[in-house]
Q: What sequence folds into this?
C-alpha cells in the first residue's frame, strides 16, 4: 500500500487544498483512467509518486520509469499545468529522473512537509526555487535544494488508507498494511541508498504513538501490519520499547517485519516480539561468509549470522532469511559457505530467499568499487536503467545451478 503518497494527500488536504487521489496499481490500462479523470477534473497541480526506479532483479529486470513515460504522455494530452515528481526513488537520481520524464519539478524530502509549502508558493505565483527539498529543471539546467536537516523525534502517524485507495483490492492480494516507526539507517552497506533518501540522523517515533497506530489500524479492520523501517531492530532500545508498548495492548493485529539485522538479535528481542503480536519476521543477512560480509560493509560478521540462527531455533516465530549472492569478493567457496549455512542452520519450516547480483546506483561505494575494478564504464547519467554488479570470481550460471540444486533438496 502506498503509505507515502497517502500521507502526502492527507497533508495537502489538511493545509486547505482539495485533493483527488488516483491509484494506478490495479489499472489494466492506466491511460484510460487518467484520461477519464482529466476530462472530469482539471487540477492546478498534479503530483506523481514513484517508489522504485526498477525491480532490482538481474534475471528479469524491469525499468519502471519507462512506464512513467506513458503516464506523462497521456497527462500532457489533456493537461498543461505543473507536474511534480515525488517518492523515495527521487533522491537517488533526481536530475536523471527529471530529464528522462520531461517533468520540471521534484520533491526530494518529506513530501508531507515540503509539498504543501510548494503549493502555497504556486498559489501566490511565487517561484518555489528556494524551498528546501525541491529539485527542478529550468532552461535546461538542473537545480537542487537539499532537504532541511531534521533529527530527533518525528510523528509517524498512519494515514487513513480507506480514504485514498481501494484497500480491499490490496488485501485480496495479501498485501500488508505498512507502518513506519523511524527514518535513517546507521549501517553503511556499500550498495544501499537509504542514507541518500532519508538523511544521516535518526528520526524516531514515540514508541507509545507507534503502538497506538497499530491499535487504530486494527480497530478499522486492518490487522495484518508490516513495520517497513529499513532496519526494525536498530536502534535496539527503540524496537524494544515499541514491542513492550504493543505487548501491553490487546490490539488483535498480526505483525511482521522483514528487516531485522543480525547484529541486534537476541532472546529478549524475539521474546518481546512474540508477546507484542508478531506472527513472522525476516532477517536480512546477505551472506554467511566473513569475506563477503566485510566486502559488503554489512557491519556484522558470520558469527552474528550463526548466533541469530541459534536464537531463532529457541523460539516459535516463523522466519524468512534473505541472502544476496554475487557481491564483492564472492567466490565458489563463499557461495558454498552460505548455502551450507542455509541447509544446516535454518529450520526446515522457515524460508530462505536468494537473490543474485546487486543493482549499482550512482553515489554508492559499490559504484566506486565497480569503476576501480574496471567493470563499470557507464557514466552516472547512463545508470538510470538497471546496471548490476557480479563478482568476477564466480560464474553466474554456476551460482544459479547451485541455488537450484539446493532448492530441489530443500523446497
A:
Amino acid at each position: 500500500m502506498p503509505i507515502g503518497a497517502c500521507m502526502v494527500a492527507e497533508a495537502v488536504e489538511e493545509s486547505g487544498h482539495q485533493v483527488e487521489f488516483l491509484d494506478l496499481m490495479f489499472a489494466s490500462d492506466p491511460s484510460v483512467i487518467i484520461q477519464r479523470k482529466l476530462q472530469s477534473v482539471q487540477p492546478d497541480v498534479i503530483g506523481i509518486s514513484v517508489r522504485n526506479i526498477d525491480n532490482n532483479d538481474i534475471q528479469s529486470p524491469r525499468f519502471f520509469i519507462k512506464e512513467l513515460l506513458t503516464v506523462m504522455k497521456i497527462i500532457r494530452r489533456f493537461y498543461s499545468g505543473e507536474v511534480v515528481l515525488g517518492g523515495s526513488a527521487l533522491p537517488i537520481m533526481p536530475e536523471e529522473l527529471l530529464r528522462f520524464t520531461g517533468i520540471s519539478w521534484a520533491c526530494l524530502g518529506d513530501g508531507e512537509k515540503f509539498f504543501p509549502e510548494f503549493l502555497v508558493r504556486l498559489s501566490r505565483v511565487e517561484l518555489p526555487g528556494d524551498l528546501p527539498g525541491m529539485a527542478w529543471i529550468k532552461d535546461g539546467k538542473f537545480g537542487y535544494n537539499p532537504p532541511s536537516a531534521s533529527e530527533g523525534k518525528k510523528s509517524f502517524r498512519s494515514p487513513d488508507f480507506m480514504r485514498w485507495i481501494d484497500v480491499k483490492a490490496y488485501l485480496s492480494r495479501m498485501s500488508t498494511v505498512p507502518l513506519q516507526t523511524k527514518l535513517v539507517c546507521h549501517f553503511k552497506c556499500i550498495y544501499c541508498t537509504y542514507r541518500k533518501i532519508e538523511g544521516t540522523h535518526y528520526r524516531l517515533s514515540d514508541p507509545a504513538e507507534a503502538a497506538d497506530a497499530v491499535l487504530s489500524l486494527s480497530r478499522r479492520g486492518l490487522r495484518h501490519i508490516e513495520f517497513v523501517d529499513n532496519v526494525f531492530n536498530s536502534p535496539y532500545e527503540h524496537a524494544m520499547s515499541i514491542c513492550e508498548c504493543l505487548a501491553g495492548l490487546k490490539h488483535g493485529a498480526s505483525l511482521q517485519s522483514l528487516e531485522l539485522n543480525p547484529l541486534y538479535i537476541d532472546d529478549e528481542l524475539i521474546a518481546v516480539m512474540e508477546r507484542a503480536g508478531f506472527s513472522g519476521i525476516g532477517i536480512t543477512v546477505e551472506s554467511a561468509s566473513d569475506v563477503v560480509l566485510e566486502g559488503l560493509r554489512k557491519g556484522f560478521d558470520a558469527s552474528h549470522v550463526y548466533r541469530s540462527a541459534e536464537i531463532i531455533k529457541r523460539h516459535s516465530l516463523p522466519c524468512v532469511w534473505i541472502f544476496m549472492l554475487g557481491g564483492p569478493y564472492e567466490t565458489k567457496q563463499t557461495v558454498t559457505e552460505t548455502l551450507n549455512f542455509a541447509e544446516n542452520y535454518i529450520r526446515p519450516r522457515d524460508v530462505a530467499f536468494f537473490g543474485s547480483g546487486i543493482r549499482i546506483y550512482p553515489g554508492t561505494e559499490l559504484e566506486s568499487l565497480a569503476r576501480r575494478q574496471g567493470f563499470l564504464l557507464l557514466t552516472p547519467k547512463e545508470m538510470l536503467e538497471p546496471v548490476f554488479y557480479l563478482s568476477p570470481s564466480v560464474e553466474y550460471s554456476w551460482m544459479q545451478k547451485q541455488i537450484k540444486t539446493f532448492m530441489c533438496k530443500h523446497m
Observations:
- The first strand starts at residue 45 and ends at 49.
- Residues 64-78 form the longest helix (15 residues).
